[in-house]
Amino acid sequence: MSVTQEPITDDVPAIITTRVIEVSKGTLFKAYSDPEILAQWWGPKGFTNTFHEFDFNPDGQWNFIMRGPDGKDYKNKIVFREIVPLEKIVFDHASGPYYKGTVTFTDTDQPNCTQLSYAMILESPKVYNNLKDFIAGANEENFDRLEETLSKLTKK
Questions:
Q1: Which of 67, 78, 123, 143 could join 62 in a cystine, given CB atoms 3.0 to 4.6 angstroms apart?
Q2: Domain residues of the chain, as ranges?
Q3: Is 146 exposed, middle or buried (0-12, 13-18, 19+ CB in 10 A)?
């Protein structure tokens, strides 16, 4: 896995996390586009999800609550902006912290492996500085949970 915590430029703060996942692009894309699978792994370790709306289309909304291991609820609203099947998902995280997310799925030289990249363009350098240490670890945990879920699904 690779985590980049450098702003893209001085005024465009971003956190980019990448990992090669041992599944096809189709399987990986389905983990993002199927709400039953997505609910199993989205979020850091110890979090659970309750989805209220999941309209996986451009301008569609994904409204859900993440419950932390401490029992605290976090309301989330995501608006999908661009969906290119098997290639890219772009969305706005429309509840704080505000950011534009881009998930890309790229073929690798390894058979049945896909490079997953998750870029978070944060709303300001201040938000970036407040969250960068937490987000990097949370994204790693999120990808770990994704791999665990995919491992269970592909063994069935």
A1: 78
A2: 2-42+84-155
A3: buried
User: According to the model, what pLDDT value does residue 77 have?
Assistant: 98
101 token code pair: 């997310």
Nearest to 88 by CA among 25, 19, 13, 12: 25
Q: Tell me the pLDDT tens digit for each residue of 23-41.
A: 999 999 999 999 999 999 9
Burial 87-104 (b: 16+ CB within 10 A, else e): eebbbebeeeeebebbbb
**The domain over range 2-42+84-155 is classified in CATH as 3.30.530.20:** yes
Of the candidates 118, 123, 109, 125, the one whose C-alpha atom is nearest the C-alpha of residue 141 is 118
